[in-house]
Specification:
By secondary structure, the chain is mainly α. It is built from 13 helices and two strands.
């Protein structure tokens, strides 16, 4: 197992919660709420339902990020991520406000402005203040918001092909080029944030070394102690899960919900994805990197098959 049981459980629970929030957000936008901030796709785009727009957006984002890292444009990257995060959080928070206040006389358009009151300060803390609790809390809402934009423009055949292509890319980027590891390292060391779940933790030996330093310099003050801990170069373990590994299962669940108008179908997809991720964490070895999307895609395909059987026999 790559991480201990406690950390693995936390990652799995956060992943599942994000999936369920994603289904709720997508359900809300499919039932009377219009995507704000100009994110609502034209009706013609919805009818065409092509994966080309997603692949194009994905390729542009990766290419732009790569170019900016080469130019060492950290400030620009932070501003870029700030804007994207504010919009994504705004989309998710708008859905929650809509559910809470939909029976009031407040115009729907006002919900999105109310959402920014929460989204902007949370994003500021996440990007510039680097609070671990705020970081992971916002991650629960960011990917459902992004998924809500893409679900209307992709159909069933499109998501099946998209998952396969993304899995192939993930294998190439992790096992063949190491691009994903380099990108994660750049985010953590240079940008001081990470696009995904991020949990630093100490092993038993690391906790023992930290305790020894604290006991040795007890009463010296927090600043002095932190300085000694930094100089000790004790390497804290990191448990991370990339944002792409979270968002594509949400999109898949959303496509099933949109196609069959069934919460049950969407939840089944999310549960199979969660089981696949758990299987990866159990199988994975320490200090090794693994592409999560191939495992998730297998789980999602199995979830699709299970769904098709239930639909065929009219169980759901």
């Amino acid at each position: 197992m790559k991480h201990n049981i406690k950390i693995t459980a936390i990652l799995i629970i956060m992943f599942l919660i994000t999936q369920l929030i994603g289904i709720f957000i997508i359900h809300t936008y499919n039932n009377g709420l219009i995507l704000p901030y100009g994110m609502e796709p034209p009706e013609q785009v919805k009818q065409d339902s092509s994966i080309l727009s997603i692949l194009f957006a994905f390729a542009i984002a990766i290419s732009l990020f790569f170019i900016l890292t080469k130019l060492k444009a950290e400030t620009f990257i932070r501003l870029w991520f700030f804007i994207v995060t504010v919009i994504a959080l705004g989309l998710s928070i708008t859905a929650f406000i809509f559910i809470l206040l939909k029976n009031t006389s407040i115009l729907q358009a006002f919900f999105s402005y109310m959402a920014l009151v929460f989204a902007i300060p949370l994003t500021y803390i996440k990007i510039f203040k680097r609070n671990i609790l705020v970081h992971n809390f916002t991650e629960l809402l960011i990917y459902p918001g992004i998924a809500a934009v893409f679900v209307p423009i992709i159909n069933m055949s499109g998501i099946i092909i998209l998952l396969l292509l993304i899995s192939v890319y993930d294998i190439w980027a992790v096992w063949h080029t190491g691009f994903m590891q380099k990108m994660a390292k750049y985010q953590i060391e240079n940008l001081k944030f990470f696009t995904g779940f991020f949990i630093p933790y100490a092993t038993k030996n690391q906790r023992l070394k930290i305790k020894q330093i604290k006991d040795k310099y007890v009463g010296k003050g927090e600043k002095f102690l932190n300085n000694k801990l930094n100089k000790s170069k004790i390497k804290i373990s990191l448990a991370i899960l990339g944002g792409g590994d979270v968002i594509f299962p949400i999109i898949t669940a959303g496509v099933f919900f949109k196609t069959y108008h069934s919460i049950y179908s969407a939840v089944i997809i999310s549960l199979f994805a969660t089981i696949a991720l758990l299987f990866l964490f159990i199988l994975a070895k320490k200090k090794k990197f693994y592409p999560a999307m191939p495992f998730l895609t297998i789980g999602l395909y199995l979830g699709m098959i299970f769904n098709f059987l239930l639909i065929h026999f009219k169980i759901i």
